[in-house]
Amino acid sequence: MLKRMTAVLATAGLGLVVAGTAHGQARDQIRIAGSSTVFPFSTLVAENFGKMGKFKTPIVESTGTGGGIKLFCQGVGAQNSDIANASRRMTKAEFEQCQKAGVTAITEVKIGFDGIVVAYKKGGPKIDLTRAQIWQALARQVPVDGKLVANPYKTWNQIDPKLPNLAIEVMGPPPTSGTRDAFVELVMDEGCKKFPVVMALEGQARRQACAQIREDGAFIEAGENDNLIVQRIVSGKPGVLGVFGFSFLEENEDKLSGALVEGVVPNFDNIASGKYPVARSMFFYVKNAHVGVIPGIKEFIAEFTSEKAMGENGYLEKKGLIPLPKAEREKVRGDAANMTALSL
Amino acid sequence: MTDMVANGTLSRGEGRRGVHTTAQADARLRKRYAAELRFKLYGLAAVSVAILALVVLLASILHGGLTAFVSTQIRLDVEFDPKVIDARGGREALLQADWAKIVDAALEAKFPDATSRPARRALSGLVSPGAQQELRNMVIADPSLIGQKRTVWLTASSDVDMFMKGYYERPKPGAPEGGRINERSIGWIDRLVAEGAIEKRFNTRFFTAADSREPELVGVWGGIVGSFYTLLITLALAFPIGVAGAIYLEEFAPKNRFTDLIEVNINNLAAVPSIVYGLLGLAVFINAFGMPRSAPLVGGCVLALMSLPIIIIAGRAALKAVPPSIREAALGVGASKMQMVLHHVLPLAMPGMLTGTILAMAHALGETAPLLMIGMVAFVVDIPTSPLQAATVLPVQIFMWADHPERGFVEKTSAAIIVLLVFLLAMNAVAIYLRKKFERKW
Fold first, then answer.
1. pLDDT over 70 for what percent of chain A?
2. Which of A47, A313, A320 comes nearest B405 by C-beta?
3. How far is A57 from chain B (nearest CA, A)?
4. How many CB pairs under 8 A join A and B?
5. Which fold has domain A115-279?
6. Which of A316, B40, B84, B96 registers the highest number of CB atoms within 10 A of its CB?
7. What is the pTM of this model?
8. CB contact under 8 A, B378 and A61
9. For B138-177, what is each residue's pLDDT tens digit?
10. pLDDT bucket at B221, cuts 50 / 70 / 90
């Protein structure tokens, strides 16, 4: 027994020694971390890149935009990630953090758009909303007779008689989600601009009045998992709305309809042309210092920006990415190939 | 008791004996019986609710997941056109060849009616992108295929697979175009069905492949291998340390405030939420020791920390169950304390320790939260070949698939849960077997 135990201990010890030597060794695999919105696209490119057989398939982590950029900005060296995925632009603070850690040259690559839709179970009355109406339905406090009061609206037709007589019930992501951030930025912050009472507020008060979502049960936080929201809407009663990424609507077109926002149908063409207002850009950031150290980074960027990936009818489009306009794609491709360093 | 019942119920009239024979006493007795019956029913109801929940869970997982063990295949006559595949360039050229063209040509030969651009795009959507790899691997294995024509079975796309399994409804005639599958594709599928050129076959890929972005190409093997390496490290670290800790605390440690403190802490550690261990792993193993991110080595270390308290507690209980007479007898014939422990006490306590260890391992197998922090929640396509390579584990695979928008991932998620449950059941069965086989009663 003693001998056996010594053997096991020795094996464990050996394992730790091996781990120690592995540290500092160069990696032969690209490491990517970041936004869960970019994750489906990044992984698909990674998979196809790996299938070409020249390089190993990159490892892609879904940590959220902030988490991914934090890992990216930890410094230069094989233990840090090479690429950060982001569903928004890198902020100035993050950029400075990167500079401080020695990550000075960063290439920004814009890959396309992602729409956020407000969708409902197929078969219900057609819903056409403005951002101001969505804000009125979901904000914690809304102006009534020139004063901000706790949101009194229970049904849509109380906001506007033209809207259907349906209870306001919206399922959406929790505040930790990037989709929620984008929804607040693109819908709530825009919607509240229509109300002079809110615009009269200053600074933090105005920001809160715009962005705070009611907590009296009309808005249901349905968890990070967009599939869960889809399932709950499909199996729930008609008239319940859900907020999620466009690709989930596209994947479930037979069960869901997208609400019109400002009279625009959330479909591929309208998001691509910029007509549909609730859309955001997606990016990834490359650490220039790792190019040539970690094999395959340049080739990976070339694959990602190639026409067969992010172009029209490219394989990313089939997964729900909305491509950039042609001229912009060409510019992005050129900048990415030259590794033009970002400056903020 | 029975007497009283008999008295209470049978003799209501004249001949009553004893004190507890009044009408009030009867009422009290009935009340007590009713209370006991209710108490039993509450227990029964609790057990029924638990069983019902389990049955509903298993039924819904099996219902949703069993279809993933078959995959739809399409039979096509493929021409390995030497104009597209250049054999002279060796393996490199074969990898780079335009395999999509070969697949599309085979589909267009089968359905010449698809002439417009959208029709041809829909046509190439019948077959999975994985079909290109299937053909490529065939040619790499046997380059003499180039220039020949062969009948091959290729994996259908997820949309076709979902339609064949009945997850998509057939659109009504005249319904607007759109949706994942339209009338035109269904027409093609119907023709394939009529010819017997489309079949559901056992999905071997699900047990040999790793992660993919195409639901029809995913497999759990990558997750199983990752889980194996992770648990191997966990076992190698947690078992010896846990057993040594348990032996010291139970057999050697003096009883004082310091050992009391240690004991309280071990019990507390067993209840610490697992994500905390993940944070610890990130700070210590990755940031301080510089171990590789996403590696089973780090995952194993973190899970070892997490299972240590459980193993120590189970080990101490097993040692406590060995009667003191064994120890006294060993010491009495002149064994040293170490001989007493290693020759007599430990072998008798081992079955209990192993049971505790296996249950701790089963617990570790199902963990995702501590692995989030150390980067094991990642898209990993290459199957790891050592504990130092990036890997993911089975429960993480389930967690990630549940998040994908593609409909095909729903059944794959359930199927992966079935695989995980089978592993958990197997481990628990081993634990029960060990306990039954080596258990001793004094």
1. 92
2. A320
3. 6
4. 124
5. D-Maltodextrin-Binding Protein; domain 2 (3.40.190)
6. A316
7. 0.83
8. yes
9. 888 888 888 889 999 999 999 899 999 988 888 776 555 5
10. very high
pLDDT at A20 over 50: no
Task: Tell the residue number behind the tokens 């060794």, with chain if given.
Answer: A25
Question: Inter-chain contact A5–B347, Cβ cutoff 8 Å?
Answer: no
* Residue B292 with chain A: CB contacts under 8 Å: 19, 22-23, 79
The answer to whether domain A7-114+281-337 and domain A115-279 are alike in fold is: yes
CB spacing of B388 vs A8 below 8 angstroms = no
Q: Are A244 and A119 in contact (CB under 8 A)?
A: yes
Shortest Cα–Cα distance, A162 to chain B (Å): 27
- Tell me if A282 sits within 8 A of A116, measured CB to CB: no
Cα distance between residue A88 and residue B327, in whole Å? 68
Residues A243, A173 contacting (CB under 8 angstroms)? yes
DSSP state of B196: T
Q: pLDDT by residue (tens digit) across B80-92?
A: 888 888 777 777 7
Chain A residue with minimal CA distance to B95?
A52
Residue of A nearest to B405 (CA): A248
- Nearest to residue B346, comparing CAs of B335, B338, B334, B356? B338
Query: pLDDT per residue over A32-75, tens digit each?
Result: 999 888 999 999 999 999 988 889 999 999 888 888 999 999 99
Question: Count H helices, E strands: chain A?
Answer: 17, 13
pLDDT per residue as tens digits for the range B256-302: 999 999 999 999 998 899 999 999 999 999 888 988 889 999 999 99
Contact list, A226 vs chain B (CB under 8 Å):
403, 405
Q: Which residue of B has its CA nearest to A67?
A: B373
Place of tokens 């001998």: A3
Which tokens in the block code for residue A41?
Answer: 């696209």
Chain B residue with Cα closest to A53: B95
Q: Which residues of A touch B382 (CB under 8 A)?
A: 29, 50, 56-57
| Residue A53 three-state SS | coil
Inspect the interface and report whether the beta carbons of B291 and A319 lie closer than 8 Å. no
Cross-chain residue pair A43–B375, CB shorter than 8 Å:
no
- CA torsion sign, A298 to A304 to A307 to A309? positive
Inter-chain touch A29–B390, beta carbons under 8 Å: yes
Residue A64's pLDDT is 83
pLDDT score of B173: 66
> Cβ–Cβ of A251/B121 closer than 8 Å?
no
Beta bridge partners of B200: B72
Distance from CA of A247 to the nearest CA of B (A): 7
Distance in angstroms (rounded) separating the CA atoms of residues A288 and A340: 9
- Residue among A5, A29, A57 minimizing CB distance to B240: A5
Q: What residues are paired with A116 via a beta bridge?
A: A245
The pLDDT confidence band at residue B178, using thresholds 50, 70 and 90, is low
3-state helix, strand, coil in chain A (%, to 5): 45, 20, 35
Among B404, B407, B412, B413, the strongest candidate for a mutation testing the A interface, having the largest count of A CBs within 10 A, is B404
User: Are B405 and A50 in contact (CB < 8 Å)?
Assistant: no
The DSSP string of B135-175 is HHHHHHH-GGGTT-EEEEEEEBPHHHHHHHTT-SPPPPTTP
If you write DSSP's letter for every residue of B409-439 in order, what string do you get? HHHHHHHHHHHHHHHHHHHHHHHHHHHHHH-
Domain boundaries, chain A: 7-114+281-337, 115-279
Residue A7: predicted pLDDT: 57
Contact state of B291 with A22 under an 8 Å Cβ cutoff: yes
Look over chain A and give the mean of its residue pLDDT values, rounded to a whole number: 86
pLDDT digits (tens, 9 = 90+) for A296-328: 999 999 999 999 899 888 889 888 888 998 899
Closest chain B CA to residue A60: B379
